[in-house]
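Aim 2, interim progress. The first record below pairs a target sequence with its structure tokens.
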Amino acid sequence: MPRPSHCVAVLTALVLLTAPAASAQGVPQEPPPQHRLVYRNLLVARLNPLGLLDEARLSYRYRLYRSESPALRDNFVSIGLAPGVSPAFGRLGVVAEVQPLSILQLWGMYEFVANFGTFRQLQSFPSARSDFSDTELYARDELPAGDARRPYANTGTQLTLGATLQFKVGPVVARSLFRLVRPDMSLREGDRVFYDIYYDVLAPNRGWYFVNDADLLYQTGRGLTVGLRWASSHAFYGPEHFAPGEPQENLNTTHRLGPVVAYTFAEREGARFNSPTVLLMVNWWLTHRYRTGADSSAFFPYLALGFSFSGDLLPAPRP
């Protein structure tokens, strides 16, 4: 039967460093140690939209209680740092997590964000109805220096509240990762929203939006995992995110669906370098203002290729 650490590696790669997955049944294992210092790292390249990101997390974990039950054994509270960097931006976050059960994790992260003004970032707009298609983003990037519509460097903060619900029954894993995000960026005067390349969302500044990733996976027991992902996003625009007199209609909800394949080369619970995993995701846009034919073909998928690994800097004692 696949071990929980295999599931950890796959879900880490799938959701940009989410919580470890849980077994609803399986062979009892020794609980993790009371005190742990753990890290995770993910490098991802993607297309439609274009992106390159390396994101890490380093956390101290304290086990809440001792249990050998698969549904209870992975419990903890934690505090840590979450750095991330790409050619377009850098982020540094403080993250707190509580996982009372193996199947449920609640977390919050407060990040400091700096956009470098490169690779068409950052671009902001006066309205949630503004054109933020790839064609428009590329055209703005080609404007002469001094044009107010060009991408520009800026800084800000972002609060993310998340919940992860996950189950594992035999070789089948189901998981949903919900994130509620509130950015607070220093935008150009007169602009109310900005394009967030991280989530591919026209984000309401000082407003909220949610992103959810749902996965249904099958583990072969030999390191290979295959499955489906459904991803969605929705922004909660207020009247302050539209130009005066505009219809206040949200045009920017998104959905995409497609297969994922991941392979974990090796795993050993408690190891300092553990579960190196490669991931390929191919999703097709079902709902998107620009990626279902208006600006790019609906047949052109979202593509992501990633490599992740994790480990314990205070590993579990070996027998």
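The second target in this work package is listed in the same format:
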Amino acid sequence: MAEAYSNFAAVYDALMDNIPYDAWADYLHGLLVEYDIASGILAELGCGTGNITERMADFGYDMIGIDNSPAMLDIANEKREQNHSSSLYLCQDMREFELYGTVAAIVSLCDSVNYITEPEELTHVFSLVNNYLDPDGLFIFDFHTEHYYRDVVAEATIAEDRDDISFIWDNYYDEEEAINELALSLFVKEPSDSDADDNLFRKYEELHVQKGYTLKQMKQMVADSGLTLLAAYDAFTHEPADEECERIYIIAKETRNKNSKKQYIQ
């Protein structure tokens, strides 16, 4: 996980300009409000460049963005300054994230949890979430399913050529392990001081590894972590999810257990 998005960070937003972040944030906000969380402190795991974080700050939440990529967080902090928000960005691995106290809700979007490829580690992440939520606090996350990796993008190659940026995504799917490896080749135009250098591009390469989970597996990990499952929706709808969905939203709530809750340090 540590190397993912290291070179991609500088051009991530340019290449992801097809993602309707406003609609995604509206959907997330609607889910939170349905469960009476219209304000308070929210933490986002895998916040990336802060696209969702800053939009949730605009809804009035006190945001904490957590990501393990310093390069992505540098861009997120630039957005925070431009947005004049009070968002706090922390460079942490979600597998061992720490907060100063409990929060009203924790969210994780853009299939960030799929980067946790060991079920035991993902269950531990969910346990940490349970520990850092206020009583009856909410956890909302999305994930790409095994069906998506196996039947939609497996062995697919996606390429796009733009004036300043080009990329090639090569997907390799291991059906036995339900692991999708995405080999990313980036070609980024270099700044130039002369016409002679106008067509100079630099190549960057990264490998992204994600695991496809079934809905059944995800429900079991939520239960094993101590959280209580409230709903599983086909993404961006309120339709019940099933194993044929490509992206699923899970809504779970904090459940008290023998572990003591963290208290805020005043």
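The chain has two domains: 8-144+213-253, 148-211. This observation will shape the mutagenesis plan for the next reporting period.
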